[in-house]
Amino acid sequence: MDEWPANIIGRKEIYPDIENILKELTGNHDTVRNIPRPSAAMPSLSELGDMMELLRSVFFPGFFGVSGLGADSTRHRLASDLDRIFRVLSEQIKLGICFDGDENGGAAGENCAKYVRTALDMANDFMKRIPAIRDLLDSDVLAAYEGDPAAKSKAETIFCYPSIWTMTNHRVAHELYRLSVPVIPRIISELAHARTGIDIHPGAAIGEEFFIDHGTGVVIGETSVIGKRCRLYQGVTLGALSFPKDADGNPIKGLPRHPILEDRITVYAGATILGRVTIGSDSIIGGNVWITADVPPNSRVVPPRSTEPTASDKLSGDATKNRAHVP
After folding, report:
1. pLDDT tens sequence across 157-190
2. 188 shares a domain with 94
3. Single pTM value for the model
4. Domain end marker among 198, 228, 257
5. What is the pLDDT of residues 86-98, one digit of tens each?
6. 256-292: string of b/e by CB count within 10 Å (b at 16+)?
7. Which residues 6+ apart lie within 8 Å of 81 measured at CB?
8. Do residues 116 and 194 both lie within one domain?
9. Do 58 and 180 reside in the same domain of the chain?
């Protein structure tokens, strides 16, 4: 940066009043911002991001992490990664419990040590579920390969597809959510959301062979239930229509309020399905529809047909060459 002229440096009418800004920023911690106390423990976004990279190398060895290893070396590498995952996850769960307690009037950060055993037990329970998560992800890879004619190989979907990246995070986050681990599942979900634009709450229950084609703008709410072999396209929302409030006007948490998709359902781009409605098995939901009621099995729901063009209607482009032709 170029040197400022000497007659500018230090002039109060130009230079910001840092002391006053600091006073306003730090004067009241007891606000809606819930600024942590100085002693409060905080989970680490970077540590959790690194842990997810290790988990990706465990689920897809050779694709992520170190590649080109032989069978024995791969086994040793996986053992080392699993050990590191357990250590990081245990610590982050402990910090998550303390953060949650501090935010909700529970234990403050300096008392985190008493949650070490709880965190270790939760992390151990998660580690036991890693093989099952890997099997689900294998089924998601198969669904991506079989569901997209542009996919040249299963390996391509693992490397390149936002659906597989997001579902890796979601499968991990969902298992931690089921174990009642606070805050950590949401962080893991949001790491994928920030990268891919796919927003899946860790509470959403999603069956095997799930695929989101393209992915951008998909939203799947907390209490959504999705069966086996379902496929969504970009811009789909599985959301809540409304939710009840208590006597004080606060939302009542935890009630089922999102859709249920049974098995073998395809939902095309831009569709919005709201509320605790059930979409029956083997149904197709067309693009840009708005659904707030149950749909029976084997249904096909499409938007109303627009007015068909006439031969004189012009399309975009060269108006003298491009015209709609109705057979």
Report:
1. 999 999 999 999 999 999 999 999 999 999 999 9
2. yes
3. 0.84
4. 198
5. 999 999 999 999 8
6. ebbbbbbbbbbbbbbbbbbbbbebbbebbbeeebebe
7. 54, 57, 58, 65
8. yes
9. yes
